[in-house]
Amino acid sequence: MIYRGSRRVGRWDRARRAGFGEDGSAAVELTLLAPVVILLLLLIVAVGRQIQTRMQVDDAAATAARAASTARSPAQAQAAARAAVTAGLPGGTPSCRAVTVTVDASDFRPGGVVRVTVACTVDLADLTGLRLPASRTLASTSTAVIDRYRGVDATGDTP
C-alpha cells in the first residue's frame, strides 16, 4: 500500500491512473443488455397484440349477435352476423390472421336467443426469439335475445 500525504493509494487508483479505468464499460454494458431489452420489447408487442385482438373479438361477437337478433329469419341472421364481423374485424392482419364466425340460430323465435361465436387466430410467428407458439386462437361468444314482440319467420322465408 502506498501512502501519499494522508490519503492511501490502492491498487485500483494506480490502475486508473495507468489507463486501466472504466473507459469502454458502457459499450460492454450496452452489448450485454441490448438483447434483453429487445426481447422485452418483443414480449410487450406480443402481449399488446393479444390484448388488442381480445377486445376486437369481444366487440365483434357482441355486434354480430345484435345484428343477428334483428334479422327476420335464421338465414338472414347468419348473413347479418357474418357481415357485422367482416366490417368490424378485418382478417389477414398480424393481429387477426383468420376469422371464423359460428352462428347458432337453433332457438330463432320471438323471445328466443341467437348465439354468435367469433374466433380469431393471432399471428405471433414474426416475433422471433421469444419461443412463443406461431399462433394463438382467441374466441368469444355472445348471446342476444330476439325481441318477443317482433315477427320472425323460423322457416327462413322472408315475410
Q: Would you list the SSEs in sequence order as H and E?
A: EEHHHEEE
Largest sheet, in brief, is: 3 strands, antiparallel
**What is the count of helical runs?**
3
Number of E-state strands: 5
What's the rounded overall pLDDT mean? 82
Q: What's the number of domains?
A: 1
Summarize, please.
The protein is α+β, with helices and mostly antiparallel strands.
Which descriptors apply to this entry?
single chain, 159 residues, alpha+beta, three-stranded antiparallel beta sheet, two-stranded antiparallel ribbon, 42% helix, rod-shaped
What does this structure look like?
The chain is an alpha+beta fold and 159 residues long. It has one domain (23-145). 42% of the residues lie in helices and 24% in strands. It has helices spanning 11-17, 25-69, 74-88; strands at residues 2-4, 7-9, 98-107, 113-123, 135-145. A hairpin with a 5-residue loop joins strand 3 (98-107) and strand 4 (113-123). Helix 2 (25-69) packs antiparallel against helix 3 (74-88). The chain is rod-shaped and about 95 Å long.
